[in-house]
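Before we proceed, please read the two lines closing this message. Let me know whether the C-alpha cells fit the sequence:

…
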Amino acid sequence: MLHSDPWVVAFSSGIIQFVVAAFIVIAHGPTLSMSHRNYALLILNSITASTGSIVYMLADQMVGPADSIAIGYSSPLLAILLGYIFLRERISCFHLPFSMFSLLGVVLVAQPALIFQKQTNVPVHDSPLGYILAALYAVLMSVTVTVTRQLGKEVHPSLTLMGHMMAQTVISFTAYAILNPWQLPGSIQSVLRLIICSLTFVFAYYFVFRSLLSEDVIVVSIVLTSEILITRVGEFIFIGTPWDLYAVIGSCLVTIGCTGIVIVSKATRSPDPKERETCSTEENDSLIPARHGQTD
C-alpha cells in the first residue's frame, strides 16, 4: 500500500490517471456521438470499474493483499457466466479446466491466511467486512469486463478509460472530503511512487480495454490472473520475498491455465456475425466481374 489511507491513493491517483486518459482521448480523437444505450453502459462501466478499484484498496487494508487477491481473482468465474448469458460467448468443455488451473494457481501463489493459516508481516484487522469487500470487488470486476466487451464493439476504449478515471476521482473525492481531513502524501518518495503507480495503472487499464475489442471475456479474465506472477516476481526482486513450493506450483498452474485458455479460445473461435457478413459481401463482390464476363 502506497499510503495508509486508501482514499488518498484513490483520489490522488484518480486525478493523475484522468489527466493521462484525457490526453489519450485527445490523441485518438474518438467521436462522442453514441446511442443512449451506450451512454448508459458507459456510465455503468465507469461506476463499477472505479468502485471496484476503491473497494479493492479497502479490502487490501482490512484483510491483507493475499486474501484480497485470492478472493478478488474469483471474478473470472462470474465473468465467464455473464459473457455466456449476455454476450452469447462460446464456452467449451476445455475452458473450465484451464480456468480452474489458473484460479487454483492464484490461491497457491497468494497463500491467503484464511486457508493457509500463514503468518504475515502486513498489519491487517482480519475484518469480516474486508472479505465481503473482496467478494464485492470480484462481482464489480466481472460486470466491468463484460460491459467493456460490449462497449468495445461501438465505443473507443479511450472513452471507456476516461469515464472510469473520472468516476474514480469523483467518488474518492466525495468520500475523502466527508470522511477525512485533507492530508495528501507529503514526502517526495510517496509522491513519486504514487505517480509511477498511477501511470502504470492507467496504461494497464487501457491495454485491457483494448484487448476486449477483439478477445472474449473468458480469455481476458483468465489471462489477467497472470498479474499475480508479475507481482510475485517484483516482490522477489525488490523486497526479497522468497519463493516456496506452493508459489512455484501455483505459478506453473497459472501459466498452464492462461496458455491453455488462449489456445482453446483461438481453436474454437467462430467468426463474428459482422465479420461473416463482411466476408460474404467481399466474396460476392469478387464474383460480380466474373459473372459479367460470362454474360458478355
Remarks:
- The longest helix spans residues 36-63.
